[in-house]
Design brief:
Largest sheet of chain A: 3 strands, antiparallel
Helix content of chain A: over 70%
Order of helices and strands of chain A: HHEHHEEHHHH
CATH class of the largest domain in chain A: Mainly Alpha
Strand order of the largest sheet of chain A: 1-3-2
Structural class of chain A: mainly alpha
Oligomer: homodimer
InterPro entries (chains A, B): ArsR-like_HTH, HTH-GbsR_regulator, HTH_MarR-typ, MJ1563, WH-like_DNA-bd_sf, WH_DNA-bd_sf
CATH architecture of the largest domain in chain A: Orthogonal Bundle
Family (chains A, B): Belongs to the GbsR family.
CATH topology of the largest domain in chain A: Arc Repressor Mutant, subunit A
Largest interface: A-B, 68 and 67 residues
Keywords (chains A, B): DNA-binding, Transcription, Transcription regulation
Protein name (chains A, B): HTH-type transcriptional regulator
CATH superfamily of the largest domain in chain A: Winged helix-like DNA-binding domain superfamily/Winged helix DNA-binding domain
Organism (chains A, B): Salinimonas profundi
Distance between the termini of chain A: 58 Å
Number of domains of chain A: 2
Strand content of chain A: 5-15%
DNA sequence: CTGAAGTTTCAGAAATTATTGAAAGTTTAG
DNA sequence: CTAAACTTTCAATAATTTCTGAAACTTCAG
């Protein structure tokens, strides 16, 4: 590993836990993404100085996040690993996976609690608050979906618009009917 | 605590670590948000069955996230705690705080690495990839800023638009000049 | 079928993170 | 100033998470 790669790998390791996986999994991801060629499990273990067993578990986890995929190299017995797609794809996968783990279970619980009939009078207020949280989470997830569907280029266009989005929004009543008309 | 509140508090505890804080901090946040009245530290410790010391640290952390604030109740010696704002405000704070911890350090490192002059030839490719990651993170954070500035009502409007956003985007060249003209 | 090359599993060890509770600190009423 | 009421700190301990490495497993060439 060149010094630059080493820095990046170390950093992704440290950040790993904040991003939802552990140190070694973070390092492994960085290594695989930055590598020019497919990497074998043993190469990864050697580069990062971790046990072969740990490497195997880490690869399994990265696959469960759909961030890497196996690739057979003709003539070679062992399996090699490469990123599951472009940076944009990988970022989307992380988002999606985190949504599944961080938001979906909460939305589900909130829905259930809202259906429970209140056992106490103070529950009315509580349910209202839970409802508010639920709606907010729903909005945010629906929105991030929308952005994902746009793809990176359109996202960039939208970005350049900046606060212009607010302005467009004010105009939408004028625009959309016109569009419907055509 | 009513059964509904208990369920919610427990759930926020379990999710806590995924959201960036630990179990008890998650429980404390839920309790404070769902409570109708300001809560004293001792009440929180009792309700959650945790030590007074742990409570104190948890409150400190919630304050560092700017999710709760202290409130003095006239005639009372002790301090009480209430949410730092509406659900929308709290959600924004969590987003912002997480961005600071999860994205900003990485962007900063990536910028530095991109400035380093490559020691090896294979670094050229690596730097290109790092650059790509950097730009993506930049886009996403700028966008989430934008959404935060819009506020909840406009976000809702935008939401209803759904995939219409894509369509509007196609029209923007027609719209924005018109706007500039007026 | 055999064994070499490779991978996965998992019990225990190591490392990290969270929690307690007692001691030290702070604030205020009197 | 003193003492009661309350809060914070932090060393020790408990709980949790991660990592290792040896054993079990799989695959395939010969």
């Amino acid at each position: 590993m060149t010094p630059i790669v080493t820095s990046a790998v170390m950093h992704f390791g440290e950040m790993g836990s904040r991003w939802g996986f552990n140190r070694t999994v973070g390092q492994m991801l960085a290594l695989i993404v930055l590598s020019e060629k497919p990497l074998a499990a043993q190469e990864i273990a050697d580069a990062l100085n971790i046990s072969r067993g740990n490497t195997s578990m880490g690869l399994k986890e990265l696959q469960s996040w759909r961030l890497i995929k196996q690739q057979s190299v003709p003539g070679e017995r062992k399996e090699f690993f490469v990123p599951a797609g472009s940076i944009w794809v990988l970022a989307n996968r992380v988002f999606e996976e985190r949504r599944k783990r961080e938001i979906d279970p909460t939305m589900s619980l909130l829905r259930d609690l809202m259906l429970d009939n209140p056992a106490h009078e103070e529950d009315a207020n509580v349910q209202e608050k839970l409802n508010e949280i639920h709606d907010l989470l729903e909005s945010v997830t629906a929105w991030s979906q929308e952005l994902q569907n746009l793809g990176p280029e359109k996202l960039a266009t939208l970005m350049k618009l900046g606060s212009g989005v607010g302005r467009i929004l004010e105009l939408k009543d004028r625009i959309l009917p016109a569009k419907a008309q055509s």
